[in-house]
Design goal:
mainly alpha, single chain, 393 residues
Amino acid sequence: MQRPDDERIGFGAAVGLGALVFATFVAITTEIVPVGLLPQLSRAFSVSEAVTGLLVTVYAALVAVLAIPLTRLTGRLPRKPLLLATIGLYSVGNLVIALAPTFAVLCAGRVIGGVAHALFFSLWSAYASALVPPRAQGRALAVVASGVSIGYVLGAPLATSIGAALGWRAAFGALAIGGVLAALVTAAALPPSTGGEGQGRARRAPRSGLAGAAAVNAIVFFGHYALYTYVSTVLIGAGVAESAIGAALLLFGAAGVVGLWLASLVIDRRPRAGFLGALVLSAVCVAALLLLRTSGPGTVAAVGAWIVGFGAIPVFCAAACLRARALSPDLSAAVNNSASNVGIGLGAAVGGAVIGTAGVPAVIVLAAAAFALAAVLVVLLRGGFPRRVQPIA
């Protein structure tokens, strides 16, 4: 059965979406790479794993603070050059880290990456939705979000494996090269897009829907990163060898792809039911770690199933913020970006503090409770999470 013309994604748009997938892959790998290299970085600079986990917190805090103001300040700039500049900043930040002589310089490299991230993830979702017809925008978001899943599937495990074989500096050096390649591919594939297009035409819908979507987003990412930032510690505590962490992360990334694929089937038709299913699955599987955390295979299986659920969640959050129509697409994406990184930063910080004081079981309870709370809010906030939705634009 053929799709109607207003649901088809043309060849040029598909090429542009492919470039955004590659750039998103580099971006998300840059964000999460400390998770797999946490033990190495901790030993290299003689700091605790809880302190090293702050590399995720600092990065996320910058995104949370800067996403909205930077998007406003750059609202009238051409989008394509701005997008390329953010990708270039990823490379600069990773190069600084690869050459870092001290932990302070390492943190400086993460700051550069955080500034890039503050704009990049506010730009790509609005750019992706502008490339395709309105009725295909949910699928376009899912396509580009596959770069996130591929980052989990290939990026983080590959960087972790490079770190295990050649050292953590080589892993960040490879990411710097990847950023350069992503910038070149994006420059060749994306059509130009002028800035400020949507900011003057923002629809005057109530902002309660956007606020609710952003709140759920922050809670979900808080729970996820409170535990996932320290997943290497959880796996090692369950008896998984450090040399096998990269393979485990590869498995988890593949699970995320499955979750994203499932989300793509319902995001333009039954987004609320799909979102609830993903949240409940994540909550149940995280809670199961309390019973399975002394079993290596059981822990790997539970985390894998949890990531199937979480793999679907970011695209539901992004679509909910854009579909709220309270602000322009760029600014709605910036709100989504900021909210998720508030959750990431607080989650990594609180998770590290809880592990240091109460141990891994307490963090598991915290993460499961966050997913459960998010599910309850999706049920209650029907305006922000309707059963059926209109196109994003």
